[in-house]
Amino acid sequence: MRRHWRRSLLAVPVVMFLFIWTLTTHGKYSVSGDEPHYLIIAESLVTDHDLDVANNYARNDGRLFGHDRLDMGLHAVRSRTGRVLSIHDVGLPLMLVPAYAIARAVAQYPSEALLKRFRMDRGLFAYSLLGLLLIAVTATGSALLASGLSGLDRPGRVAFLVLAIGISPPVVSHAFLVFQRWWRSSSRVSWSGSRSSRPEQATGPCCWRCS
Q1: For residue 36, what pLDDT is reported?
Q2: What is the pLDDT averaged over residues 178-207?
Q3: pTM reported for the whole predicted model
């Protein structure tokens, strides 16, 4: 029984990761809307070690993550001290700094010729690596949720339920985007799993059929 459950538990994040990843290989609204402006904050933190994004927009740093000629527009304003600060929250970019720095570094290794074969450049490749990380985090959250619900029903049914949640909006539509809703969706899934796995939960009725 334990082996069967472990297989089902492992299948949930693997299937979810592969499902969402295949979606990203088709047309999607990547590096659009607010997303590149969160990434420009991360770029400023990694390269300049500050939150002033004026020079990042000026030197077209958007190309470093696949958004060439990124226009600042109304996404940043000049403060009283003269710095140009983004209007978006810095929490998410701050969390992504280590992953963003690694993705930027790894993107320097493939040759331009190799990247062109896959219709990519170094910026898009770095962005793709970052997207894979976000999908992995979301898939891990689904595994935590499945683990937390393990005492409610049969492993197969629990796995099916968690997968149904994971491949449905809003989770699937934000799993690969650098956006605040990604953090909300992933954290809610992970929080639900950890809450369901509390000891006091396990000492109650085994499932709704037993109550």
Answers
A1: 93
A2: 51
A3: 0.78
**Dihedral sign from CA coordinates of 71, 90, 168, 144:** positive
Using alpha carbons, list the distances in angstroms from residue 188 to 138, 144, 158, 192, 205: 10, 11, 17, 6, 24
- Virtual CA dihedral for 6, 152, 147, 184, nearest 10 degrees? 150
Among the ranges given (6-10, 14-18, 173-177), the one the predictor scored with the smallest mean pLDDT: 6-10
CB 41 within 8 A of CB 96: no
Among 124, 79, 133, 81, CA closest to 102: 133
Rounded Cα distance, 70 and 32, in Å: 10
Residue 93: CB atoms within 10 A of its CB come to 23
Q: Which amino acid is at 166?
A: G
Angle (deg, nearest 10), helices 180-196 and 122-148: 20
Q: Rounded CA gap, 136 and 204, in Å?
A: 32
* Integer angstrom CA distances of residue 186 from 57, 83, 138, 146, 163: 30, 33, 5, 14, 14
Summarised one tens digit per residue, pLDDT across range 115-156 is 999 888 999 999 999 999 999 988 988 888 888 887 777 878
